[in-house]
Amino acid sequence: MTTTKKRQLPVWQESILLVLTAMVMAVIVKTFFLQAFYIPSESMEPTMLVDDKILVQKVSYWGGDIERGDIVVFDDPGGWLGPEESRHASNPLQSALEKVGLFPTGGHLIKRVIGVSGDKVKCCTDGKLTVNGVELDEPYVADESATADQTFEVTVRKGYLWVMGDNRGNSSDSRAHQGDPGGGQVSEDSVVGKAWVRVWPLGRAGFIHKPKTFEAVNGK
């Protein structure tokens, strides 16, 4: 009885196959599970600092709703970002890694969700935001008094979000774009995912938790 010896690929072909497989897996992960981003501005301080590197997870929104208090990354609705905040990879290697989700992506914004579809968001009652009549205690805000600098009262349209930065005195968020065609509201379809974990700098690495601020609104 003779046995047929299985033919092995040359080492160079195996190496190419492994690299291609790894890239395909990275693209799948980026598309459906995780994606790396960096923080381009001071708008989310003190929660997130400029050039923090974070991972955004997409699993939560497969079958679930975006919730108040989530920190979300979303595509620029148009004109929200300046050139300095839209930077991308600066060399071919970084560009290739960016395409497969292994290099932090630019051209996006990151804000906290304050209101979801149907919510009535108002500023301000005693200097505080209210959502559906409930005053928000926002310990994550850099300067809570800065929230009252711009008054507004909006009802969030179906399929849209009202988003604001934690650094209220230095955040070009929904408030600043009320005169735009979308009225400053961000389409849920433009959301890439939810901020999940900070991976850099190492001294501040860790999971990003949602505060209890919106529990009273959720339970109303």
Topology:
Elements: H1 11-32, E1 34-38, E2 53-57, E3 71-75, H2 92-99, E4 108-115, E5 120-125, E6 128-131, E7 134-135, E8 152-155, E9 160-164, E10 186-187, E11 191-200, E12 206-207, H3 215-218
Antiparallel strand pairs: 1-2, 2-11, 3-4, 3-11, 4-9, 5-6, 5-8, 6-7, 9-10, 11-12
Low-confidence stretches: none
Query: How is the main sheet built?
Result: 8 strands, antiparallel
Helix proportion: 10-25%
Q: What is the overall silhouette?
A: elongated
Count of individual helical segments: 3
Features:
220 residues, alpha+beta, eight-stranded antiparallel β-sheet, four-stranded antiparallel β-sheet, 3 helices, 12 strands, elongated
Describe the protein in words.
The strands form 2 sheets. Strands 1, 2, 3, 4, 9, 10, 11 and 12 form an 8-stranded antiparallel beta sheet that branches. The protein has a 4-stranded antiparallel beta sheet with strand order 7-6-5-8, with no helix packed on it. The chain has helices spanning 11-32, 92-99, 215-218, and strands at 34-38, 53-57, 71-75, 108-115, 120-125, 128-131, 134-135, 152-155, 160-164, 186-187, 191-200, 206-207. The mean pLDDT is 81. It is elongated and about 75 Å long. It is of the alpha+beta class.
